[in-house]
Amino acid sequence: MNEDILAGLAPHGHLRAAINMSNFLLVSGEDKDGQPDGLSPDMAREIARRIGVRCELIPFAGPGLLADAAAGDIWDIGNIAIEPERAAVIEFSLPYIQIDANFLARKGSGLSRNEQVNRPDVETVLYGRSAYDLWLKENFTSARYQREASMAESIAAFEAGQGDVLACLKPKLLDMVAANPDFQILEPPFTAIRQAVGLNKGHAAALAFVNETVAELLAGGFVADSLKRHGVQDKLSLPG
After folding, report:
1. d(Cα 214, Cα 197) in Å, to the nearest integer?
2. Under 8 Å between Cβ of 103 and 93
3. Across-strand partners of 104?
4. C-beta separation of 97 from 26 below 8 A
5. Could you give the percent of the chain with pLDDT greater than 90?
6. DSSP secondary structure code for residue 39 in this structure
């Protein structure tokens, strides 16, 4: 294995992979050893296998905390969504999966289109520092936000009657609509969250290797097979 690749991906002799535990679609459970399981851990373990080192999964409660740890010699790769704000400190690979994000409104609210949300008299409840929060902060600049510390707390706040709309990942919103006919999803998605492998800046050879690996895993069916194995193939889509 190329020494520059190993220096970028396993400077301590093994691959330390940061995992965003709040993404229920990419971390869908635990394996027999109690370790995080899902597409995100599968990607990390496969990268480690290809460079011939052990993979250590490092869980983070949310993407903001994972991003905060960049350049802190805590992780070597971080599986996280691509966002311009994070790109200031993280190099991103090609995306290997994408997840739609939509608004959820209450029926009778008069809200039926995305552009209606981008107003100061409409309050959006959402998970603070999530990928879709970062996107909205850049693109829906007239909106008013109620940011919660987790996805679960944002959902609970909206279900308790707070805010005018909820911004969240579409698969979670589909579950909410199925449970409560008074909710409706605004279409189309306001953005698609592109999940990638993040690296600390300055490791060109490692990034090129990861990009090549991601392309091969997509083309060879590894990603699609992982989605099926974890039962989320109908909730995620491969990059177009």
Report:
1. 9
2. no
3. 166, 185
4. yes
5. 93
6. H
Residue with tokens 């999530």: 130
**12 CB-contact burial (10 Å; exposed 0-12 / middle 13-18 / buried 19+):** exposed
User: Of the ranges 37-46, 64-73, 152-161, which one carries the lowest mean pLDDT score?
Assistant: 64-73
Q: What is the token pair recorded at 93? A: 């690979």
Report the 10 Å Cβ neighbour count for 104.
24
Written as six digits, the tokens of 211 are: 């990009």
**Cβ contacts of residue 228 below 8 Å, gap of 6+?**
none
pLDDT at 80: 93
Where are the extended beta strands (E) located within the chain?
15-20, 29-30, 36-37, 55-60, 77-81, 90-92, 97-106, 123-127, 144-148, 165-169, 183-200
* Sole residue written with tokens 């995080």: 36
Tell me, what's the pLDDT at 110? Answer: 97
Residue at token pair 């699609």: 224
Name the H helices within 57-203.
Answer: 63-68, 131-139, 151-159, 170-179
